[in-house]
Design brief:
This protein is α+β, with helices and mostly antiparallel strands and 207 residues long. It has 2 domains: 152 residues, Methyltransferase, Cobalt-precorrin-4 Transmethylase, Domain 2, CATH 3.30.950.30; 51 residues, no CATH class. Helix content is 36%, strand content 21%. The protein contains 6 helices and 10 strands, in the order H-E-H-E-E-E-H-H-E-E-E-E-E-E-H-H. Strands 1-2-7-6 form a 4-stranded mixed β-sheet. It is globular. The termini are far apart. The relative contact order is 0.15.
Length: 207
């Protein structure tokens, strides 16, 4: 659970990062462009280690510099967990896991979407949505946020693909090990006692 201090940090940071994206104040129930932009960011962040955060209610005052703008009550209430999940996960497989939370800071209101990293396999867009227009979700695309540029876009470099595959493989190996432990086929070793660990360090240092 993210506490209020963490949420304040995301607003006060004022600079987008790989794990952090800002959006202008908007209505979720408005046009499809809004939904496509948010869905792209959510799918991209679900493919990152530790996921990411989207803050809605910020405005870019200079290139790369953002400040709080705040949202109206009507805008805030349009962003519901169920409505976003229904729209985004209609075209994301597996479903993106996330939490929508309204947040107030310095008398300004925001919507903060906290996206979890994928559970076992990367998130893939499996449906073009909507059909036509400049802003669309592309069927078969794996959205990602590259180290090179803070944007949510289809994965396009070998480096990014290797990074994503490595994360998926590690998750797969961890799942297999846990499964074997549950079956009793792999031993579960207890954490070493503090005195034993201290003795080992002393022996290694020649004390």
């Amino acid at each position: 659970m993210t506490n209020a201090t963490n949420l304040e940090f995301y607003i006060q940071h004022r600079k987008e990062e790989r794990y952090l994206e800002y959006k202008r104040s908007m209505m979720w129930t408005g046009n499809n462009t809004t939904k496509v932009k948010v869905a792209k960011a959510m799918m991209a962040m679900s493919n990152l280690r530790n996921g990411g955060v989207i803050v809605i209610g910020m405005r870019e005052i200079n290139r790369g510099v953002w400040e709080p703008e705040g949202m109206t009550h009507e805008q805030i209430t349009s962003f519901t967990q169920d409505d976003i999940a229904q729209w985004v996960n209609d075209c994301a497989i597996p479903a993106v896991q996330f939490k929508v939370e309204p947040f107030t800071h310095d008398d300004n209101e925001f919507v903060i979407i906290q996206v979890q990293e994928f559970d076992s396999v990367p998130t893939v867009c499996n449906k073009q949505k909507p059909r036509g227009g400049d802003e669309v979700l592309k069927a078969g695309a794996i959205y990602y946020r590259s180290k090179r540029k803070n944007e949510s876009a289809p994965i396009s470099s070998e480096e990014d693909m290797r990074e994503l595959i490595e994360l998926a493989v590690r998750k797969g190996v961890a799942w297999q090990v846990n499964w074997l432990r549950e079956l009793g086929l792999v031993a579960t070793f207890p954490a070493p006692r503090e005195d034993a660990a201290l003795k080992y360090e002393q022996e290694r240092e020649g004390l």
